[in-house]
What we know:
Structural class: alpha/beta
Radius of gyration: 24 Å
Number of helices: 11
Strand content: 5-15%
Distance between the termini: 22 Å
Amino acid sequence: MKPLFFPFTHVSEEDAAALLTCFNGFCRLGVSRLEELTPQEPAAEVVLPSDKEIGSVFAMIEDYRQWARVNQGGAGQLKARVPDIPYFTSDTGISSLKSTIESQAGDGVGQDLDGGDKQRNALLNALVFLRMAQEADGEIDQIDKKFSLISKSEARLFSALRGNGLPSAVDVASSDSSPVVNKDRGCSRTDKRILSWACFFREKIAFSTDTEPLLPVTTSSAVMDYFLSMAKKSTKVLDIGNFKVHERSCDQSNPWKRHLNDVIWDAVSGIHRDENRLIEASDGCAVIVDVQLHLFSDKAVTDIFCPPGQKGRKNRLIQGKGGEIPICLVHVKNKNA
Length: 337
């Protein structure tokens, strides 16, 4: 069983810490061959589109950005940038201007977007969204890190001004100039993230020849809440809260992960065993985790991962006895992971 991280293509340090605290490795979807695994995710497998699809995605993104740049200066600048259109009428609206820009961009980008196979177009549109969301998530991640560094520097400065050796908790709190930010990326465009990711998943990995089963795992409570809100039929089969586990560097980490995998597999398979057979860490490790596992049998959820036209094919997702789709939520409550 391999965890499949979703519905994001950007893996933050917090995401990697949560996944690798509970599992030995994981699989994720990516949108660029230039992506490199960070030191926080050494055991990750990245599934990518074809080179042709990646090229089309980046061309489409550049086209959209060019369109945005053209529209920034108002009607006057727009007319100057598209000199072949003599004046603005109902015929020179967004669709006409977009077509002109696409033809200037070349490489058949407009044809890929507006014509041809609908399935391919749906995949390309999904990949475009995932790539742009990945870039935005990465930028926000870097901004948060810089704000954190500023806060720590301010705390040290206040401590030095007082003549203290170490900053106090009050100093750290008072010097935290970072804005209040919802750290859960799943709160933003939740449905679009899930549907775009699912389109990529169905086309590239759901029916691959690899026989290792996949378990959808998210670190976003908002994503889990989205599925729970849309599903009329769901069952919570595992709920481990405030559980003290071994740090990844601990010798006892791997046995605990294997035990957790066994418990998850049994829960999906309908084998009811006592969750207490998981033994909490007692050797000084201080990583606190929450793990939830829900089984979804509602058609609205199962169709996202297994569309009606493809249900006869063997899907790599782990499924319950009745075809239920499992979704696992993992969360690390401290940053020592």
